[in-house]
Design a protein that fits this description.
This protein is mainly α. The protein has twelve helices and no strands.
Length: 291
């Protein structure tokens, strides 16, 4: 059941990305980020406020919670901006360089040990990233740096999440939604007011928020039922979803080098997960799921 939940969660995130890519040419990205986190904030208030009250925002590490929330919102902003210009599969694959960055940050910040397997994973992730970005090529994808910026923000977010391990997970989940709603309410008008929206676009905007909320709830339920080391390999199904949905919705299919890069990133991530689970080392880094 936990595996089914993970598959459903990454499907929700990929569908959310399709909606963002559909709406991005006509509407400000900050508005889309606002809708994504605003609906999650409302859903969590309805779900938790009756039983928790002010405990929803009670924390022993307020500064870290605020920083974590800002990083996640920034990651959403960068990633959704990348979706405006990049094929869905390309942006998603670049986002899966996050585990590579988490390993590097964990060594520096948390003083975790750098094993040979982790060094190999970092090198493989870098090679896969270069194959997707293709620097120097005639069709160099400059917007790739937006997706990589999202990965950097999300990797830092994950490191802070580890540092907040003793906090109530419901509080930790609510803060990004609250911060995203408040910050984007102030920010998006500066990027231009949205043009008149059709009812279909309003429905898509609402659906994006609902999909993001369902996806995160499924993640929470799945990781409560099974260990992270057992579930992490199945998060790479998002690469498959992104490729299929990008092809169906937009007619985009990755070129040969991009497919090889995606395969290297996904394959090295799976091998690292298997290696660390087999040797019972430090749990592997969390999957991106930045949406």
């Amino acid at each position: 059941m936990a595996v089914v939940m993970i598959a459903g969660a990454v499907a929700c995130f990929s569908l959310l990305d399709v909606i963002v890519k559909t709406l991005a040419p006509r509407h400000p990205i900050p508005l889309l980020v606002w809708a994504r986190w605003g609906f999650q904030a409302v859903a969590m208030l309805v779900w938790l406020a009756p039983s928790m009250g002010l405990a929803m925002v009670r924390t022993q590490q307020l500064r870290m919670q605020l920083l974590r929330g800002v990083l996640l919102v920034a990651s959403s902003l960068f990633f959704m901006s990348a979706l405006k210009y990049l094929p869905l599969a390309d942006a998603t694959a670049l986002n899966y360089t996050t585990p590579t960055l988490v390993i590097l940050l964990a060594v520096v910040v948390l003083h975790e040990r750098m094993t040979k397997a982790r060094i190999g994973f970092v090198v493989a992730g870098a090679i896969g990233m270069l194959l997707i970005v293709q620097p120097g090529a005639e069709f160099f994808k400059g917007a790739s740096f937006l997706a990589l910026a999202a990965a950097v923000c999300y990797a830092t977010f994950q490191i802070i999440t580890r540092m907040l391990a003793g906090e109530d997970p419901r509080v930790t989940l609510f803060y990004p939604a609250l911060i995203g709603t408040l910050v984007m309410t102030l920010v998006w008008p500066w990027f231009g007011l949205p043009i008149a929206m059709t009812w279909a676009e309003v429905a898509l905007l609402a659906l994006a928020g609902v999909l993001g909320t369902i996806g995160h709830f499924l993640f929470i339920l799945a990781f409560a039922r099974a260990p992270a080391s057992a579930l992490t390999p199945f998060t790479y199904l998002q690469l498959v979803w992104a490729t299929l949905l990008g092809w169906i919705a937009f007619g985009d299919f990755p070129d040969g080098l991009t497919l090889i890069g995606m395969g290297i990133i996904g394959g090295s991530g799976l091998l690292l997960t298997w290696h660390e689970r087999r040797r019972a080392l430090i749990p592997p880094p969390e999957p991106p799921a930045v949406d």
